[in-house]
C-alpha cells in the first residue's frame, strides 16, 4: 500500500523534533500540516517564504509540493508520518530529511540509495529532481541541513 499514512504507534521514541535544525523542522512540520489539512497550503507557503526569503521560499515550496504529491501517489511502500502535534519524528520522516540533506551535501550515492528505498524506478529521476530543488532552496535560504552520517561498509 503506497502513500502517506499516520504513524501507528505514538509511544515509540525515534527522535525528538527539538533536536532537529530549523530547516529540518520546517520540512517535517510542513509535511505533517499538508497531510492532515490540504487547505493549510497558504500557511505553509507563507512559512517557507518567511523562513527562507521570497525567492528561495518560492522554489522550496514548489519542490516541496511536488515531492509531497509524489510521496502520496507514487511511493514504493506506505510512508508513515506523525501527527502535527507529535514531538517525535518517525523513521520515514527522518528518511525524507536524510534524502534532502544528502542532496544538499552532494552525497549522490546516498541520494540514490534513499530514493530507491522510497520510490519505484519509474519516478526516481523525478523524485531526485524535486528533492534537489528543495535542497538547493533551503541552502539558498540559509538552512543547511545536518550532513547524513556515512557509515563504513563492513563485510
Question: What can you tell me about this protein's structure?
Answer:
The model has no long low-confidence stretch (mean pLDDT 86). The radius of gyration is 15 Å and the shape is globular. The protein has a two-stranded parallel sheet with strand order 1-2. It has one domain. It is mainly α. The protein has 6 helices and 2 strands, in the order βαααβααα.
Brief characterization of the structure:
This protein has 155 residues and is mainly alpha-helical. The protein contains 6 helices and 2 strands.
Which geometry do the CA atoms define? globular
Q: Write out the strand line-up for the largest beta sheet, numbering strands in chain order.
A: 1-2
Describe the main β-sheet briefly.
2 strands, parallel
Number of strands: 2
- Give the radius of gyration: 15 Å
Spans of 5+ residues with little confidence (pLDDT < 50)?
Answer: none
Distance between the termini: 33 Å
List the helices and strands and how they pair.
Layout: E1 3-6, H1 22-36, H2 41-52, H3 54-74, E2 78-81, H4 91-104, H5 108-118, H6 124-140
Parallel strand pairs: 1-2
Helix pairs in contact: 1-2, 2-3, 3-6, 4-5, 4-6
Relevant terms:
mainly alpha, 6 helices, globular, 5% strand, 155 residues
Amino acid at each position: 500500500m503506497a502513500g502517506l499514512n499516520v504513524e501507528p504507534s505514538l509511544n515509540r521514541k525515534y527522535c525528538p523534533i527539538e533536536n532537529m535544525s530549523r530547516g529540518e523542522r520546517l520540512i517535517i512540520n510542513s509535511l505533517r500540516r499538508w497531510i492532515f489539512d490540504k487547505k493549510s497550503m497558504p500557511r505553509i507557503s507563507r512559512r517557507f517564504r518567511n523562513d527562507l526569503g521570497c525567492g528561495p521560499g518560492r522554489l522550496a515550496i514548489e519542490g516541496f509540493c511536488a515531492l509531497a504529491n509524489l510521496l502520496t501517489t507514487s511511493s514504493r511502500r506506505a510512508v508513515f508520518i506523525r501527527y502535527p502535534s507529535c514531538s517525535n519524528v518517525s523513521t520515514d520522516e527522518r528518511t525524507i530529511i536524510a534524502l534532502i540533506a544528502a542532496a544538499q551535501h552532494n552525497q549522490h550515492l546516498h541520494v540514490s540509495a534513499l530514493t530507491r528505498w522510497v520510490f519505484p524506478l519509474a519516478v526516481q529521476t523525478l523524485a531526485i529532481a524535486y528533492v534537489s530543488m528543495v535542497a538547493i532552496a533551503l541552502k539558498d535560504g540559509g538552512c543547511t541541513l545536518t550532513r547524513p552520517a556515512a557509515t563504513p561498509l563492513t563485510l
